[in-house]
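In the current project phase, work has continued on tokenised descriptions of protein folds. One protein thus recorded appears below exactly as we store it.

——
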Amino acid sequence: MMRPPGGISSAHAPDRDLPARFMALGMVGLLAVAVLAPFAVPLFAGSFSDLRLLAFVHLNTLGVVAAVILGATYQLVPVVLQTPLASVRVGRASFWAFLAGLAFLLPGLLTLQHWAMGTGATLLVVAFGLYIWVVGTTLRRAERWDVVAWHLAVGLAGLAGGIVAGLLLAGSKGNGFLGTMTYPLLGAHVTFLLAGWVPVLLAGVAYRLVGMFTLAEDALWRPAAWGGLVLMAGGAWLLVAAFLLRTDAALRLAGALAIAAGQVLFAAQLVHLYRVRRRRGFDVHIPFALVAAAGGLVAAVLLVAGMALGLRPSSALWVAVVWLALGGLAETAIQGFFYKIATFLVWLHRYAPLAGRQRVPRLEEMYHRRLAVAGWLLWTAGMVLSLAVAPLGSAALGHVAGVVLAAGVGCFLANVGRIAGHGLPNVTVWMSRTPTRPVGPGATEDGVVS
């Protein structure tokens, strides 16, 4: 007889609408990225201060990466800590402030409307402040902290630094009160978010999810996980201090080297977990996760190279570093883990009540595996092509890369639609899937224990 699944859900998990609304917003943001990519990626060949490029970067950062991360952490933090969220109601309020902030900020950046930028930035600060309060209070109430919980806490500190720096930059757009501190604060803003928040939080979440998906949680190299956290976060904060204090190049290089060393440990940890996994066979999240780790590692290596060479802020190399951190690391990981997290939550909603009474689909039967693999190949190819746009200065190549990236996202979103269809009442879509091996009593599936 099948019993209710555990894994990424538990009695402490919040109502499903809280993570679902953020993830749905992230998917809308990803659709917008796909539509705009053929026109936005060619901008990599120009100036990083182009308003259209600035809006595209913030669409990726806030509309996709931040939206999905907020939703995923609202779901996972109570499960990881075995502690209910401090307030689901405040979490829902953070969504509406976040949505309104995006609605003002992105058009404001594109049209250089200072009032819209200021309004949007203020609303986003409110949204992130509420999110930090909910997750931070939940962390504080937890009785037991492990290495994953510390990744979440340290990531929150990086996020707080990033939003304060972003608010100051948005305010300075109108009157320029930052003066010569604008570029140092811009460097701190980007470093806080793309080195001190996103990679740190993704690493902690990945340790828990990959271990759970592969039944290899006990194989985690904990000293390497702790070492990676110290290096990634310590390097990011050191780099921020070097920017703000305008110290010599040696301190900036030391920060970049620490970040790179942390990424090496993270990538090595993932490879180790996949090598010793007890659940053998191909799982579509694996290639996404490995490409994400490679993206973060290459971004960190380029960061070290840029610091060692003392490149100016206008260098094309920084465009590649930012794009690798956003698209190569964060958005690739989001696609891979979405196939596990969202699919499981939909399964829990639709099929858990039926489990044991009739045949229910396996998680991988709820989407097209070949389409998922095709999406991974196209997305990876698009990322590689897009990285050549800035150094070659080729807008034509940017159009091609943008189209390939859009095709990859299209495959992913088609599967997202299929997964979402399983959550609708009176809709049966899984029986038309490619036949898979039968599931007998007592078998253990991804997140589904029978």
Q: What stands out?
A: The longest helix spans residues 316-350. Residues 1-6, 430-450 have pLDDT under 50 and may be disordered.
